[in-house]
Design brief:
By secondary structure, the chain is α/β, with parallel strands linked by helices. Helix content is 48%, strand content 8%. It contains 14 helices and seven strands. Helix 7 crosses helix 8, helix 10 packs across helix 11 and helix 13 crosses helix 14.
Length: 383
């Protein structure tokens, strides 16, 4: 009998991971602790690799920076306050101004989002911006069009880079605005920030609130979201594919989570194709306003488990059976001989088979496929 009793197991890895979202105050740790905690979370082989990588990277740093022998040699940037009106835009380094982007920034203005403008001081003492022109123009509009003050009378923060080598600054500009120089937030990072934002900061952002509601559904079913960089995608209850979680409404994620909790029983990770297929199925249920009750989910999980062990991995019997049904269907159709059958292990061809199978084996209402394929499995080709 399938149950969700396993979710009460507070010793599970999923419970431990989800507990990270239960912090009710800012958690502050030092740089040393942050580094070594991150290293210690890796497996032994990865730790050894990081150790070797650090040694080789240190050597690379020394080769590229032979003049850096003490801290003062680093010539780091420093922060200043300068009159807004004194800032000049170096048009040989900045992109063309996007006035529409400035309007977007103005419509969503929040002082906490204003980053210091990046500048250098030339030989004439001029303050030249090589990055941050949209921020500078935004502040100029606030000063001149909203507050009606002289830009020369207000001070703004800038970061001064101690270099007059424009080639270096151009490299920095490209790096700061590309993957080379920024560690962009991955999908999992954005998800976590939203949950923390609601639980810790009491954010009222509607999208963030929806994400936190989805997290509640996952926690209730012994599931947790993760990514390859956390080295735990194989753990029981792990969901490493977030596209579907992000796309679905919270209630639909609730159905999906309860189904996955039933078929995994807290004893395996959730497969990527399993996420794709079942998220697509429940999305169809939502579109057709099918009432997905506890009884519905219990029977659905029982059917998929008994027929093909609820396994949608690429080499599973589900895809073997549906591929055979597809090729048999294709051979019966009066297609042009030049049209070669190409079965895809995706909802395009998997969903028509799953829907047909459920119409045969499931007593509850089943949505229409809507996969875009004309594929109709024959009754004899089903389980």
């Amino acid at each position: 009998m399938l149950t969700l009793n396993h979710v009460t197991d507070t010793s599970s890895y999923a419970h431990t991971r989800n507990a990270e979202f239960s912090i009710n105050a800012t958690n502050a740790i030092g740089l040393h602790q942050r580094w070594y905690e991150s290293i210690n979370n890796l497996d032994a082989d990865t730790q050894a690799y990081v150790s070797r990588l650090l040694s080789s990277t240190v050597c690379e740093f020394k080769l590229r920076n032979p003049n850096v022998t003490q801290w003062s040699d680093l010539q780091l940037c420093d922060s200043l306050l300068v009159p807004l009106g004194s800032i000049l835009i170096d048009t040989t380094m900045q992109r063309l101004l996007d006035v529409f982007w400035v309007m977007v920034l103005l419509s969503k203005f929040d002082a906490i989002k204003i980053a210091p403008i990046q500048v250098y001081i030339d030989s004439h003492g001029r303050v030249l911006a090589w990055d941050g022109q949209h921020t500078a123009i935004l502040l100029w509009i606030v000063a001149t069009h909203i507050l009606r003050v002289d830009p020369n009378s207000v001070m703004v923060p800038v970061v001064r880079y101690r270099s007059s080598q424009k080639s270096k600054m151009r490299e920095c500009f490209i790096a700061h605005n590309s993957n080379e120089g920024k560690k962009y937030l991955e999908t999992i990072d954005q998800y976590m920030q939203m949950v923390f934002g609601v639980r810790l900061d009491k954010s009222q952002n509607p999208d963030w609130i929806k994400t936190e509601q989805k997290q509640q559904h996952l926690e209730a079913c012994g599931l947790f979201v993760t990514a390859a960089k956390f080295n735990d995608t194989y753990r029981d209850g792990a969901i490493s594919r977030l596209q579907e979680i992000n796309k679905l409404q919270p209630d639909t994620v609730g159905w999906l989570a309860r189904y996955l909790g039933l078929v995994t029983q807290g004893q395996r990770a959730v497969g990527e194709k399993e996420m794709v297929m079942m998220a697509h199925y429940f999305e169809l249920c939502a579109q057709e306003k099918i009432p997905v009750t506890t009884g519905y989910l219990l029977e659905l999980a029982t059917v998929t488990t008994s027929l093909f062990n609820a396994d949608f991995d690429p080499n599973s019997v589900f895809w073997i059976k549906s591929a055979k049904a597809y090729y048999n269907w294709h051979s019966r159709m009066d297609f042009d001989s030049s049209i070669m059958p190409r079965f895809k292990k995706e909802p395009l061809h998997g969903m028509p088979f799953l829907i047909a199978q459920l119409n045969k084996s499931f007593t509850q209402r089943v949505p229409r496929s809507k996969s875009g394929s004309n594929f109709v499995p024959a009754a004899e080709d089903l389980f």
